[in-house]
Amino acid sequence: MTRTGYAELAERVTPYSASASMPWINGAWNLEDLRGLAGLSREIARQAAMIGYLDAFVFFIATSVAVLPLVFLIRIRR
Q1: Where are the domains of the chain?
Q2: Per residue in 35-69, pLDDT tens?
C-alpha cells in the first residue's frame, strides 16, 4: 500500500502544480537542487507510509466486521 501511495503522490508533484508554487513550499524543497529533491522524496515516502498504514487499518477493520457475524454461528458442544 505504501508503494501505491507513493506512486499516486509522486505523480501529482510537478514544478507546474499550484501547490509547488506556494512560498512556504518553495522554501522547504528546492526542486532544482539534489538535496531538495531528496527531501521532497523523503516527505512523499513519509506521507505514503501513513496512507499505507491507514489503508491497512481500514482493511483489518472491514475484515473483522465481515467475520463478526460468523462468530455467532459457532455453537459450542457441551
Answers
A1: 2-73
A2: 888 888 999 999 999 999 999 999 999 999 999 98
